[in-house]
Design brief:
- Strand 5 (about 115-120), helix 4 (about 125-135) and strand 6 form a beta-alpha-beta unit.
- The chain has nine helices and ten strands.
- By secondary structure, the protein is an alpha/beta fold.
- The protein has a single domain, classed as Rossmann fold (3-Layer(aba) Sandwich).
- About 45% of the residues are buried.
Length: about 280
Amino acid sequence: MATPVLEKFSFPGALGQILVDVRATDRRAAIPAVIILHGFKGFKDWGMFPPLAERLARSGFAAVSINVSGSGVDDEGQPAWPDRFAHNTFSAEQADLDRLLAELDAGRLGLPRPSSVGIVGHSRGGGMAVLFAGRTPRIGALATWAAIAHVRRWSPTQVESWRRTGRFDVVNTRTGQVQAVYPDVLDDVDAHADSVLDIPAAAGRIEAPWLLVHGSADEAVPLAEAERLAAAARPGVVDRLTLPGTGHTFGAMHPFAGMNPNLEQVFNRTVAHFGRALR
């Protein structure tokens, strides 16, 4: 089995540079590509994402992992641009995905135009992947891991305080850093939650095969959100994998501490799903 080669790229996104890792064993042929999208406070090199990219590349895909421009994280995995993180919005992430697909299809990421394109997103990235797949016919397969089903994530009390002080503080549990989030995302939600950021509505438009993965003990995104997505989807589109007693990252940690049975099952089902759907 050929060893995947990693190449790194960057190009302008909505809030700064989008950082991209591309892993592939064949850079001459037009092969299927799979975009890997992190969630809130996530980044392309967090825990389980590089091993997933390696697994996909060894299975014949071009694995395309990104840091969205509003992640605030540099290529060393450090929160180097807190202002970008503070200004990030759901719409900015959608714009970044549009730019990424344009670069990929133009052959500017070290590969010919892919024969087909899939996307896998975790948590917030899962919701963003649903929105993207729901409006982008080029996406031929979707996998969501612990995906959010709505963009209104905060209580009225939190929103009131946020508006009053001009910031909402979140703790980066990995670094201990307190990071501000500005009201940009609230403005984005108020303007678009019932239109272009309506995740269940996007779910109902998806025709591509969709693997929907969730842990029954998810402490960050309740299983009820997976139920909502499945109910919104068209009949026959969704293949569900619910992992009993499993949390938000399926037992994965950062730094990565190795595979476990739940994560192995998620990887295997995800790679097989893309293998069936993408040519």
